[in-house]
Design brief:
With 370 residues, the protein is of the alpha+beta class. It folds into two domains: 172 residues, Aminopeptidase; 167 residues, Aminopeptidase (3-Layer(aba) Sandwich), CATH 3.40.630.30. It is 24% helix and 32% strand. The protein is built from eight helices and 15 strands. Strands 1, 3, 4, 5, 6, 7, 8, 9, 10, 13, 14 and 15 form a twelve-stranded mixed beta sheet that branches. α2 links the parallel β5 and β6. It starts with 13 loop residues before the first strand and ends in a 23-residue tail after the last strand.
Length: 370
């Protein structure tokens, strides 16, 4: 993907599964390569890349590529139980692909990497694999959508919109209503999630895995109508093992950032961090609203703001299918940052290809798990 430079022949990349001995090299690479786009965001994994306690039961594995001992690429995968066409299904998710800047022979590394990955996944029970990619990452999209020889096919499934919204720092806190039991919340989440594609399934095993990362049903709030839950959501702060770093702003935003921060402070809202600074960010997770009760969203959001303030969170991220009707039913009161990603089905080219159904309906993967 970089221009070709005259040099001696390249040595072949060597691939291996990541271990604790690779920790420092992985963290250094992740810190140096932000996501593409006008707003450059990166994810740090401190204090250790392996500190993440497999949240939501998503066991993560990572494949590394080295050349002459130097780490040049990293990519991870996990499997999860989700709803597809109303049925509980196991699917795989590819994520965290990063390549060192100016990696020579990058297409060759990609081809080798996908062959190695296909070998790792040949015994997987997942019915299909998907990934997400920043819509502004046109260079990577051009390569992966080209269906070049020996690369898997990347077929768009849906456009996904994430809004990062500032949380008010002053004003009265709304009362927060908690679920009466984990069973009550689980039943509601499954009932609503089953209407969407790629939405997580919920059971005791998932709650147990989440509890190991410090998240329980008591981190959630609910809205009731006639005693029944009609909306539920939580605030999941993952900063103990994954941090959001602002690597760079567009030129116009870099110039206006001090003024924006002053204006935000006067309104009781958080300002934008400096380049290189971390964003105090948590995800809305889980998120569910009964189909018949979209009007519950404003009340639910007020409770989420209260939960965020109690936890000293400055920004909340909510991700939904760009075509989700909820984007049209309620305008968030505060201006925020929006970015779009594309969900792709990944298949072919030696890669497992077992998707059995056409892609239809509205997608609802949780942004906290992407």
């Amino acid at each position: 993907m970089d221009r070709i430079l005259p040099a001696c022949p390249l040595s072949r990349a060597e691939f291996s599964r990541a271990t604790a001995e690779d920790d420092a090299d992985i963290r250094a690479l992740l810190c140096s390569v932000p996501m593409a786009g006008a707003l450059k965001i990166g994810f740090a994994r401190e204090p250790s890349f392996f500190a993440c306690p497999a949240p939501a039961g998503l066991a993560e594995q990572t494949l590394l590529a080295r050349r002459d001992g130097r780490l040049i690429s990293v990519g991870s995968w996990s499997e999860r139980k989700v709803w597809m066409n109303g049925t509980e299904t196991t699917v795989g998710y590819l994520h965290g692909l990063r390549m060192a800047h100016r990696t020579r022979g990058s297409m060759s590394v990609l081809r080798q990497g996908y062959r190695e990955l296909a070998e790792c996944l040949k015994h997987s029970e997942a019915v299909g694999w998907f990934t997400s990619m920043d819509a502004e990452n046109t260079r990577a999209r051009r390569v992966l959508e080209s269906r070049a020889s020996a690369l898997p096919r990347y077929t768009p499934m849906a456009h996904y919109l994430t809004r990062v919204l500032p949380m008010p720092r002053r004003g009265a806190l709304s009362a927060v209503e908690k679920p009466e039991s984990c069973t009550e919340l689980t039943d509601f989440l499954n009932r609503e999630a089953s209407r969407y594609e790629l939405a997580l399934t919920w059971d005791a095993q998932r709650w147990s895995a989440l509890a190991r990362s410090g998240f329980t049903e008591q981190d959630c709030c609910v809205v009731r109508r006639k005693g029944r839950i009609v909306a539920a959501a939580g605030v999941w702060d993952q900063s103990a093992w994954k941090q959001v770093v602002v690597h760079g702003y567009p030129a116009w935003l870099r110039l206006l950032r001090p003024c924006i921060s002053i204006g935000a402070a006067s309104l009781g809202l958080p300002g934008l961090p400096r380049e290189g600074g971390r964003l105090s960010l948590a995800s809305v997770f889980p998120f569910a609203i009964a189909e018949s009760e979209p009007s519950a969203l404003p009340e639910l959001w007020q409770q989420l703001e209260s939960l965020a303030r109690q936890r000293r969170i400055d920004w909340l991220a909510l991700g939904l299918d760009a075509e989700d009707a909820l984007w049209k039913t309620h305008r968030m009161r505060s201006p925020g940052i929006s970015y779009r990603t594309i969900l792709y089905a990944v298949e072919g080219g030696g890669f497992p290809a077992r998707w059995q159904t056409p892609f239809s309906g509205v997608f609802r993967p949780e942004c906290a798990t992407l």
